[in-house]
Amino acid sequence: MSDEDWMGRALELADRAAGEGEVPVGAVVVRGGVELGAGWNRPVGSCDPSAHAEIEALRAAARAAGNYRLPEAELFVTLEPCAMCAGAIVQARVARVVFAAADPRAGAFGSAFDLRAVPGLNHRPECSAGVRAEEASERLLAFFRERRRLAGTGASVG
Q1: Rounded mean pLDDT, 14-39
Q2: pLDDT in tens, 101-149
């Protein structure tokens, strides 16, 4: 499958997050053309601040591989990883990260800052940005537009 196809899978997972009232971010870990793990944002529902899509996907992939290190793996995610997720990606030794939408406020692979530029790191994943970015961005914009609308009506937004 192509990068666009794998990002399509991540977008499906982002839709699952949105359906659960979470910020619509999805992630999938692939190695050798095979899905090792998938995840979607779940911090609100799981009461876990670390339950970002990337962390969920890395956890599932590590369980499937029987190893917390994921050499030669690729991670496809609909939003640029934050510092926490970027750190986990480095620790897991993921070879390549492909993200859709950039995150200028918190993106740790080039937007807000680039974790890979920190001296002393012993692993720096390759990164590709912008794959199906418009689709991912529209999901995020629609989600937050709806949250603002509900907040304006006094409805609970989670």
Answers
A1: 98
A2: 999 999 999 999 999 999 999 999 999 999 999 999 999 999 999 988 8
Catalytic hit among 4, 22, 54, 135: 54
Q: How far apart are CA 54 and CA 77, in angstroms?
A: 7
Asked if the model's pLDDT at residue 7 lies above 70, the reply is yes
CA-to-CA dists, residue 103 to 5, 50, 68, angstroms: 22, 18, 27
CA distance 110 to 107: 7
Alpha carbon 29 to chain centroid distance? 10
> What type of residue is 54?
E
Predicted TM-score of the model (pTM): 0.94
Contact criterion met (CB below 8 Å) for 37 and 58? yes
Identify the burial level of 55 via C-beta atoms within 10 angstroms of its C-beta, where 0-12 means exposed, 13-18 middle and 19 or more buried. buried
54 classed as catalytic: yes
